[in-house]
């Protein structure tokens, strides 16, 4: 650190499901208790000029897609990774990565930010820590270590009531480690009988849980694994449900049903099977560094598919499995309309592969008629409505409609005056027009100013019609809305839709503003840094 640069700490985070934001908030509270004042900021809110004026920089980041930085760090990473990024020799830093070891590029966002900061001359305060899905313990340990080091740097002593690294408690007694057992009060199918998809509307009773939510939040649903999948595993292993694995106090059947992740093969199981697989091609793919080929091969497969490739003992198998994970769903209601309930819009995953029927872990559990489900709130502070008079543009095909139903409910309940424009898409109008009557009601009431729909399978010539096509068809008007201060929101599939919409938004600006690609890129980046372009994708 330069001699004339006083201690000043910046904490930046980038999140996908809200976990990185939660860890950042807990870190800030623990730091404050230890006498170190810091407020978490989105990485996109930070500039390299800002980093040049501070002495210490902490990063807490999730990883998105194929090893990319999350959406709310894209602009920051673009600057940091650019060829003309300034030297940061004065800076002391530490990085905490959150990820999922199922994916080949585990915690890659944290890794590349950590490496780039070091490359630019910054000095490491503590080694980078990469957290898997069970992130609380390593994140808390990193918090304690970093705060102790920062306390030494500032000569700040802990308060008498706490010690460095003591993290804030959860705001609610119900959280991902202690979900609330809620009743499912309503379950109805939204898609028609001829649809090739099955989308359901659920209403979950919060009762006296004390859980409160906001439009834009998500809900964590904790499933129970499908009995057919559990039975298939037991049959493959040649043991009964009462079998007790080594070192375990719970029988195997109960472990597989309620405690362990069996729908998505873990990285450890992939590695074990790769070392023993009888099938040469499967062995090569599982052991390959080609993430695209591996993802393609794994798509739709579960742990039974891997067990069929190699001889694995019960104890070896159990040790490779991760704890059963919750699934997050965007909330489809406003608390002003449904204060004691949370509505969800969930597409049931159900398909056949290699002669066996498969179900999504949580979507299958809900569609199977569950009357009680364990839940916890997953706040999404980065996906909120703007001022009531600000115009909004919402792009939400399929189940991506969920948070926008909540937004429209909220705007109607508050009497908001801002214009609103929704781009909704599905496969067929006759069977896949989710909440059609409600959207018509919002239009009639003036809550929804404009509605553009795209139904991909309805064209007689077989060409596909998607929401991004309608954005481009109305480029001039859409750009005019943006110029008038509109906030644009995108919710739904991350792999295809969100990327296509992102490209379409750039093209809208190119066409309507008459600028080149660089100009459109800069314009969209400004929308991102102003938090006027927000995504909730999965």
TrEMBL record:
Keywords: Amino-acid biosynthesis, Cysteine biosynthesis, FAD, Flavoprotein, FMN, NADP, Oxidoreductase. Its EC number is 1.8.1.2. The keyword Repeat does not apply. It comes from the Bacteria. It is an enzyme of class 1 (oxidoreductase). Its cofactor is FAD; FMN. Residues 177-386 form the FAD-binding FR-type domain. GO terms for biological process: cysteine biosynthetic process. It catalyses: hydrogen sulfide + 3 NADP(+) + 3 H2O = sulfite + 3 NADPH + 4 H(+). GO terms for cellular component: cytosol. One of its GO terms (molecular function) is flavin adenine dinucleotide binding. Residues 9-147 form the Flavodoxin-like domain. This is assimilatory sulfite reductase (NADPH). It comes from Mycolicibacterium vanbaalenii. The gene is cysJ.
């Amino acid at each position: 650190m330069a001699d004339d640069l006083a201690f000043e700490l910046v904490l930046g985070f980038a999140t996908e499901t809200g976990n990185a934001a939660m860890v950042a908030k807990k870190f800030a509270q623990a730091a404050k208790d230890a006498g170190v004042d810091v407020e978490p900021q989105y990485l996109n809110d930070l500039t390299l000029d800002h980093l040049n004026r501070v002495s210490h920089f902490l990063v807490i980041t999730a990883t998105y897609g194929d090893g990319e930085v999350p959406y709310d760090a894209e602009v920051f990473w673009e600057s940091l990774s650019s060829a003309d990024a300034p030297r940061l020799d004065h800076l002391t830093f530490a990085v905490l990565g959150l990820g999922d070891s199922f994916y080949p590029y585990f915690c890659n966002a944290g890794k590349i930010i950590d490496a780039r900061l070091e490359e630019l001359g910054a000095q490491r305060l503590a080694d980078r820590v990469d957290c898997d899905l069970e992130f609380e313990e390593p994140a808390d340990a990193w918090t304690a270590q970093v705060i102790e080091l920062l306390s030494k740097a500032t000569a700040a002593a802990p308060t008498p009531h706490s010690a460095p690294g003591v993290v804030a408690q959860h705001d609610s007694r119900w959280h991902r480690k202690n979900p609330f057992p809620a009743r499912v009060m309503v379950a109805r199918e939204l898609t028609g009988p001829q649809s090739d998809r099955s989308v359901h509307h659920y209403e979950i009773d919060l009762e006296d849980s004390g859980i409160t939510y906001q439009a834009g939040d998500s809900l964590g649903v904790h499933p129970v694994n499908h009995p057919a999948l559990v039975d298939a595993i037991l049959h493959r292993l040649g043991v009964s449900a009462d079998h007790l694995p080594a070192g375990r106090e719970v029988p195997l059947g109960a472990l597989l049903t309620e405690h362990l992740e069996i729908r998505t093969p873990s990285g450890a199981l992939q590695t074990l099977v790769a070392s023993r697989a009888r099938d040469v091609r499967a062995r090569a793919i599982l052991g390959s560094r080609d993430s695209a080929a591996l993802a393609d091969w794994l798509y739709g497969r579960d742990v039974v598919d891997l067990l069929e490739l190699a001889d694995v003992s019960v104890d070896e198998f159990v040790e490779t499995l991760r704890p059963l994970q919750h699934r997050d769903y965007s909330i489809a209601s406003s608390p002003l309309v449904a204060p004691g309930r949370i509505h969800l819009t969930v597409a049931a995953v159900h398909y056949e592969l290699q002669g066996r029927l498969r179900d999504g872990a949580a979507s299958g559990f809900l569609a199977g008629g569950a009357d009680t489900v364990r839940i916890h709130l997953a706040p999404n502070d980065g996906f909120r409505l703007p001022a009531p008079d600000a115009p909004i543009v919402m792009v939400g095909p399929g189940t991506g409609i969920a948070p926008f139903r909540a937004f429209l409910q909220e705007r109607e309940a508050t009497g908001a005056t801002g214009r609103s424009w929704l781009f909704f898409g599905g496969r067929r109008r006759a069977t896949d027009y989710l909440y059609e009557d409600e959207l018509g009601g919002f239009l009639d009431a003036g809550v929804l100013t404009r509605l553009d729909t795209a139904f991909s399978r309805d064209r007689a010539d077989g060409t596909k019609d998607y929401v991004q096509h309608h954005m481009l068809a109305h480029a001039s008007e859409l750009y005019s809305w943006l110029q008038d201060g509109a906030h644009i929101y995108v919710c739904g599939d991350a792999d295809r839709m969100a990327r296509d919409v992102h490209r379409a938004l750039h093209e809208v600006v190119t066409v309507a503003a008459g600028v080149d690609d660089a100009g459109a890129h800069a314009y969209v980046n400004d929308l991102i840094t102003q938090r006027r372009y927000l995504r909730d994708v999965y």
